[in-house]
UniProtKB/TrEMBL annotation, chain A:
Coiled coil: none annotated. The chain crosses the membrane at residues 59-83, 109-129, 158-180, 200-226. InterPro entries: Cytochrome_b-558, SQR/QFR_C/D. It comes from the Bacteria. Gene3D superfamilies: Fumarate reductase/succinate dehydrogenase, transmembrane subunit. This is Succinate dehydrogenase. It comes from Chitinophaga silvatica. GO terms for cellular component: membrane. The keyword Ligase does not apply. Keywords: Membrane, Transmembrane, Transmembrane helix.
UniProtKB/TrEMBL annotation, chain B:
This is Succinate dehydrogenase/fumarate reductase iron-sulfur subunit. One of its GO terms (molecular function) is 2 iron, 2 sulfur cluster binding. Belongs to the succinate dehydrogenase/fumarate reductase iron-sulfur protein family. Its cofactor is [3Fe-4S] cluster; [2Fe-2S] cluster. It holds the Pfam family Fer2_3. Residues 155-185 form the 4Fe-4S ferredoxin-type domain. The lineage of its organism: Bacteria, Pseudomonadati, Bacteroidota, Chitinophagia, Chitinophagales.
Amino acid sequence: MKWSQFFNTSIGKKLLVGATGLFLCSFVLVHLVGNLQLLKNDRGEAFNAYAAFMGHNGLIQFIAWGLKIVILLHAFVAIQLTFSNRAARPVKYAVNPGNQTSSWFSRQMAIMGSILFIFIVIHLAQFWAKFHYGDMPTQTYEGMAQPLKDLYAVTYDAFQHGWVVIIYVISMIALSFHLIHGFKSACQTFGLNHKKYNGLINFIGVWIFGIAIPIGFAIIPVFIFFQ
Amino acid sequence: MEHYNMNLTLKVWRQKNKNDQGGFETIPAKNISSEMSFLEMFDVVNEGLISEGKEPIAFDHDCREGICGACSMHINGRAHGPWAGTTTCQLHMRAFKDGDTITVEPWRAGAFPVVKDLVVDRSAFDRIIEAGGYISINTGNAQDANNIPVDKHKADLAFAAAACIGCGACVAACKNSSAMLFVSAKVSQLALLPQGHPEKDSRALNMVAQMDKEGFGSCTNTGACEAECPKEISLTNIARLNRQFIGAGFSSEK
C-alpha cells in the first residue's frame, strides 16, 4: 500500500486527525503556560518580553506557521470524515439510544471542533494579526534598550468587554468537551489501549486536557474583566 | 420470576423491497407472554396478520439460540434491544411492560440495504471476509495437537474475538455506521494465533480496504459498538487492528 493509498483509507485519515490533534494538545499546554504570565501584576513586563521572543525567534515562527497548517489539516480531514460518516447512514433511525451506549462528548466532536475553529479565527484576528501587522502600543521597561509591543495592554483592553469574555469562556467550554474525548480517542486510534496505561490516558485526557487546561485559559479573561 | 401477559403496540418498519420508500406501521400485539422471546412475539403477531390476510412482517432469524447472528433489529433505539450482551432472539418479553409501545427498525447503514421490512443485506461483511479473513492453508492432514505452542492468554483473547457472530449490531449501533469492531474481531482472532500470524499484514490492509469500499463509516471511538455487541467484543480489538494496520502500512513494500 502506497502512502497516498494509506492516508486515503479511513484509518489513515483518522491517524492524520489523531496525530495533528495530539500536536495541538501539546500546543495548548505550552500556550497556557505562556499566557498565565498575563496574570502577573508587572505592567506586562514578563508577558511582553515573552511575546517579543515568541514573535521573533526563527524556530518558534517556523513552528507557529506549521501550527496553522496543522490546524487546517486537522479540520479539513475531520470534516471530510464527518461527511463520509454521515453519508454512511442515508436513512436515519427514528429512535436513537442517546447516552445509553456512548458518551455525549464523543458524539459532539464535530460541533465542538467547529466552534473552536471559529474561535481560533477570531482569536488570531484579535491578537496575532494585530501583534504582527497592526498598530500596537509600546511600553518601555527599566533596563531595556528598546520599548516592547504592549500585547499585555491590548489583551487587558479586549477583556474589558463582557461579551468578549463570554465568547472566550464558551470557547473554552467547547475546548473542554472536545478534549475530554479527543485525547483518549487519539490514543485509541494509534492503537494504545492497554490495561496498564488506560487509567493514565483517561486521567490525562479528562482531567488535564479536558478540565484543568480549559479552566486555566478561561480564568485569564475572567480575571482581567474583574480587575 | 413472575409470569405475566401483556398487550403491546408495535411500531414496525415496513418496506416492500429495496426500492420502496418504506414507513412505520402500527400493529397491536395482544396477549403476549413475558416468557416469549422477542422473535416468538413476532411469530404470534405474524400468525395474526396472516389470518387477517395481511402480509407478515419479514425478519431475519435462524438458530434462535444467540449464536448465528441472523436476527437483526433496532428495538427502541437499541441494537438487539435493551439487554446487554443479548441477541434479539435471546431477548425476552419480560424486558417490557403491559401497554408499552415498541419501535422496531432494521439496521440502518448504506452498506446494509434493506431487502424487506426488517431484513437487511449484510453481504458486505462476506466480501470483507473474502478480502482476507481466512488462512491460506489448502491441503494436508490436521496436525497433532500441541505441535504448535500457543500462549494460553493469547488463545483466550483470540477466542473472545472469535465469538463475533457477524450480526452487524456494531454497524447498526455506531453513529458512523462503522464496521471497525467486526473487522477488528476477525483480524484479531487470526492474527493472535500462530496459524494466522504469517498473513497478518496483508489481511489487515486488504480487509480495511474492502471495509472502506463497502461504504462503512470510520471509527470515532464512541464505544457504542462495544456497548451493543451481543458477544461483548472488546474495543481493545479495534486498537489491535489499528496497530496492525499502521504496522502493515508503514512496512509494506507494494
